[in-house]
């Protein structure tokens, strides 16, 4: 299989990986031949990248970071609680979270077990996000990324559980933001952005009243938009005034935001999202956290076509643990000429460097 930009996929191409919605329902099955109307529908749904079959890469497979059942359970849990916070005006929001805290803690332990048990580098490619549910998928992804960073930083199990709770609840304050602002397809006005910037305070106010979770979790919601140089919000905190968990979630939050499909912007690929983070290293985000994140995630996901500095092109077929930018590549071209496929392991071929990615797709 190969990862391809939906806009470049031709009619007659065959889908190589089933596409689900965030309720766990199948939208399009693996093996379906894509007619023009299906390709257009995928584009309308905001699906930027898909996996398609390719004879030369048929042995390459993408592995989801979570089993489908656990992913669906996690999204349903997040949605159920967040919806209650939004709808049950007669019940204190903190009480809703308090009742669900045991359920959230159990969920974090399951997610932590998956992240720990998976020796593959973490890869989350957005297959489909329906925009009114973005907050739920975002909360789950940020949790997985935060746990991956925490593990790279050798955090203790109890610390990881608290970090996970802070990550999964970091955006609960957005429930108080009007939907027409959250889902606006165009640029926000100054007044609308002011409303958006209230959500860390709203989240803190909800979570600090929950007796069954650490106060640190509330500070994760409060501080995930703070930045090292004081340019963040809501309080403009500097450096060590920001809790370590807040700094970790900030990195995970930004990365997932730019690599997810949004109503106003197409998803970036992981290496592009990482460039965004490195542009703010030392000023907006702690460099050591970005480095830890880079070690934990797949910068070049399995199935993506890459070009090397010596003119060779191929498809990433496996990851090297701890070496996210040095995967194993199945070489298909040498200086524009097709060649018999062979593998190159960038862990050992040190002179070879990835200089670009190509997500266009031409049927064989």
Would you kindly provide a written description of the structure presented here, covering whatever features stand out?
It is a single chain. With 364 residues, the protein is of the alpha+beta class. The chain folds into 3 domains: 56 residues, Molybdopterin biosynthesis moea protein, domain 2 (Alpha-Beta Complex), CATH 3.90.105; 229 residues, Hypothetical protein af1432, CATH 1.10.3210.10; 54 residues, no CATH class. It is 41% helix and 12% strand. It has 12 helices and 9 strands. The longest helix is centred in the first third of the chain and has 25 residues.
| CATH-level-4 superfamily name of the largest domain | Hypothetical protein af1432
Strand order of the largest sheet: 8-7-6-5-9
Instruction: Compute the CA-based radius of gyration.
Output: 21 Å
Low-confidence stretches: 127-132
Helix content: 40-55%
Main sheet properties: 5 strands, antiparallel
- Supply the helix-strand structural class: alpha+beta
Question: What is the overall number of helices?
Answer: 12
Distance from N terminus to C terminus (CA atoms, Å) equals 12 Å
Count of strand segments: 9
Which shape, going by the Cα principal axes? globular
Second CATH tier, the architecture of the largest domain: Orthogonal Bundle
Name of the top-level CATH class of the largest domain = Mainly Alpha
Please trace the helix and strand order, writing H or E for each element.
Answer: EEEHEHHHHHHHHHHHEEEEE
In short, what is this structure?
With 364 residues, the protein is an alpha+beta fold.
